[in-house]
Specification:
This protein is mainly alpha-helical and 734 residues long. α6 packs across α7, α25 runs parallel beside α27 and α28 packs antiparallel against α29. The chain is globular, with a radius of gyration of 29 Å. The chain starts with 30 loop residues before the first helix and ends in a 22-residue tail after the last helix.
């Protein structure tokens, strides 16, 4: 049997870092094609692998990228799977998520991508784009035009048809490799199975009847638990005679694949077919609980779902994936599409989509509650994993008549993810879409759903520094809340107006509004991360007016409540203010300890704002410790991050004074030239590198207490904290 090099057999470090899927079974054949594709990528910056569904494009492209990226001098290789993306305007968000790109500004997502990729040596694999050709073609053209060291390996059933594209048609396996593939997959089911004189002829004929398409071959091999190769061949003959043709003009390989999948469908039990069709409602991965709730009933009991699902896994129709001890499932897009056709024929699509929506509405509701708990980090990870399904639920609500209010509720309920985990831009997309639509009635729960979407929209717009639409959304929310007597919505609208006043330097007004909002929260019994963030923001307002002691008292209270509830996200900002207070007292070791905890928490939630604020304050602590070079380097690192957050230090004199103090002290020690060289070195650090540098700093040799910095520099504006936990006003983002 001819076998290709396994990933584990390659020299260590030969593949640049990235997110390519791990190979869980043997990659068979295609040595010549892999070498040819590497040469194509050397000659062209855009290569598109095309071929029929089931020909193995995705697996081949991932293997080729892993082998070729190092040879091409790429620093990293990233793969974005667009199969679960249904809206063309979500392509950019999917790519940004793959790149782990966090940007809190109101800049268009495409502009953010262009800026991020401009100077990077990256191999980007874009898979499953055929239903989004126009959007992908436009994006790819702009990316390649703006990023001279970017290479793109696209994977789809048709070309992108853009300038500079080199097409790489992928043919089926040759007969010998197809037989080897069949034997390898069969051996996984039947230990000891191997090609021999007794079965080789039948296996080869099965592969040839399936045009040696890898997916079809694997589906056929999955039947050997019940059939011999000879029986398999006989039944395959019967099914081909039964399931011939297809749509006129369709490629023969498309007909063959559909026939192969249809044959596998015919061999399924009635319950297996039913579950197959119902599972097609999922976008991307799903878990067992979701499958049991959504897919059970009307012929399939919930208790039977696991057994039926296990059979579909055994037949290679559903893929089981495990990460961090969490098991999830997914269907290949071709298999999912076949099931979706059957679901549509059965007339059950709308009902299943509603059940799907109901499940993910419930998930979002529980996660919003769990956000204020010790499970906060797990909630962030869970929502991230379920984002494709949440998008599908939102799309259903905002396009199905009578469902608008549920879309508004769902978009608003996810506020903690939009704001806390670095997804402001996508959150604003869904929120704006939802409030542009008129709900079915203006009273009761429908109206409250719209009010929630409005205050969250105002919140997100403030975080992006877009104050005019923020004010409009919050004013509409307040007016409607007063009209229907919704005290909760009134409190949130007043709270966000206070944030807006804070970042526009109207400090007395900010304090008044924030105190009013907090009183309103107490009256209705509201307590969560948002409420506590309002208290931190109030601490900022009073600190900016000169009462640092009151700010410390407010944040100490926040810390106690956070520790009682296991809350971490808001805690980071309370600790940030307390770290500043320790710096004013000269306890630099304690200040650094608190800031290190802030960095760890911010990294957990991908909180880019919290990260950059903490690095700025660490720079101030560092220069006070006497290390001017490191302080300048940290300021350079922060300077690189700020464009992805918003206006550096919010354009505020209050926020900017400590930054200027740090820069002035460091420049005086280093001199202009050395100061600028350290800043430039910091600007070359990726955000993750800057965080690791700050976290890894040894403080053992630092003095525990130094003379209070306020004595040496009594300028009144430096009595304020180095930065606020608000971004252009409002709660912090992640």
């Amino acid at each position: 049997m001819r076998r290709e090099l396994r990933p584990a057999d390659r020299p260590e470090g030969s593949t640049p870092p990235g997110n390519l899927p791990l190979e869980l079974n043997l990659f068979v054949g295609r040595a010549d094609e892999l070498a040819e594709l590497t040469r194509a990528l050397e000659a062209a910056r855009l290569v598109t692998v095309t071929g029929a569904g089931g020909v193995g494009k995705s697996r081949f492209a991932a293997r080729a990228a892993a082998l070729a990226a190092g040879y091409l001098g790429c620093d990293a290789v990233r793969r974005v799977d667009l199969a679960a993306v249904r809206e063309p305007n979500l392509v950019e968000y999917a790519l940004a998520a793959t790149l782990e790109l966090t940007d809190h500004t109101s800049r268009p997502q495409r502009e953010v991508l262009l800026d991020h990729l401009g100077q990077r040596q990256l191999l980007l694999v874009i898979d499953g784009f055929e239903h989004l050709v126009d959007a992908c073609a436009s994006l790819v053209t702009e990316l390649l035009g703006a990023a001279p060291d970017l290479r793109i390996l696209a994977v789809g059933r048709r070309p992108l048809s853009v300038e500079g594209e080199r097409i790489f048609p992928l043919a089926p396996l040759d007969t010998a490799d197809a037989a080897d593939l069949f034997a390898d997959r069969a051996a996984a089911l039947l230990p000891g199975f191997a090609l021999d004189d007794g079965n080789r002829t039948d296996v080869v004929e099965v592969c040839e009847r399936l045009d040696c398409l890898p997916l079809a071959v694997e589906l056929a091999a999955g039947r050997l638990r019940a059939l011999s190769p000879a029986d398999l061949l006989g039944r395959l003959d019967d099914r081909f005679r039964l399931l011939t043709g297809g749509t006129r003009g369709a490629l023969p390989r498309h007909q063959t694949l559909r026939t192969a999948i249809g044959w596998s469908h015919e061999l399924c039990t009635a319950q297996e077919r039913l579950l197959w069709a119902r599972l097609s409602v999922f976008s991307g991965q799903f878990d067992l609980d979701a499958a049991e709730y959504i897919c059970s009933g009307d012929g399939l009991h919930a208790d039977a779902v696991l057994d039926v699902l296990s059979e579909l896994i055994a037949q290679s129709l559903v893929i089981r994936e495990e990460a961090d001890s969490v098991v999830r499932y997914r269907m290949l897009d071709t298999v999912r599409a076949y099931g979706a056709d059957w679901l549509e024929v059965s007339g059950d699509t709308a009902r299943m989509r509603r059940r799907h929506r109901d499940w993910y509405m419930g998930l979002a509701t529980w996660c919003e509650l769990d956000w204020f708990s010790p499970r906060q980090a797990q909630v962030a990870a869970q929502i991230g994993a379920e984002l494709p399904n949440l998008r599908a639920a939102l799309e259903f609500c905002l396009t199905e008549p009578g469902e608008t209010h549920l879309g508004q509720y769902l978009a608003g309920t996810l506020w903690f993810y939009w704001a806390g985990c670095g997804h402001l831009s996508e959150g604003r997309h869904w929120l704006e879409r939802s409030v542009e639509l008129d709900a079915e009635t203006e009273d009761g729960d429908y109206a409250r759903s719209r009010l929630k979407a409005l205050w969250v929209l105002g919140y997100v717009a403030i975080l992006q520094g877009d104050t005019v639409p923020a004010l409009a959304a919050l004013q509409e929310c307040r007016d409607e809340a007063d009209r229907i007597g919704d005290a909760t919505a009134v409190a949130y609208a007043v709270h966000r107006r206070g944030c807006l006043a804070l970042v526009t330097d109207d400090l007395p007004r900010a304090e008044e509004l924030l105190r009013t909002a907090l009183a309103g929260y107490r009256e209705i019994g509201e307590l969560n991360s948002s409420v506590l963030m309002g208290q931190v923001e109030l601490a900022m307002a009073v600190a900016f007016q000169g009462d640092l002691a009151a700010a410390v008292e407010l944040c100490e209270d926040v810390r106690l409540v956070c520790e009682d509830h296991g809350e971490r996200w808001t805690l980071a900002y309370a600790l940030y203010v307390l770290a500043y207070a320790e710096w004013t007292k000269g306890d630099l070791v304690r200040a650094r300890q608190l800031l290190r905890e802030c960095l760890v928490i911010g990294d957990t939630f991908h909180d880019l704002l919290g990260t950059v604020l903490t690095i700025e304050l660490l720079a101030l602590v560092t220069v006070t410790e006497g290390d001017a070079g490191e302080a300048a380097l940290l300021q350079g690192a922060a300077g690189r991050i700020w464009p992805s957050v918003g206006l550096p230090l919010f354009g505020s004199a209050h926020y900017n004074a400590p930054h200027e103090r740090c820069a002035s002290d460091a420049r005086a020690i280093l001199g202009d030239a050395r100061f600028e060289s350290f800043v430039a070195a910091g600007a070359r650090l990726e955000p993750g590198e800057a965080v690791q540098r700050a976290l890894g700093r040894d403080t053992a040799s630092r003095p525990a207490v130094v003379p209070g910095p306020r004595t040496a520099h009594p300028a009144p504006e430096t009595r304020e904290p180095a930065a606020s936990p608000t971004v252009q006003g409002g709660e912090t983002t992640g």
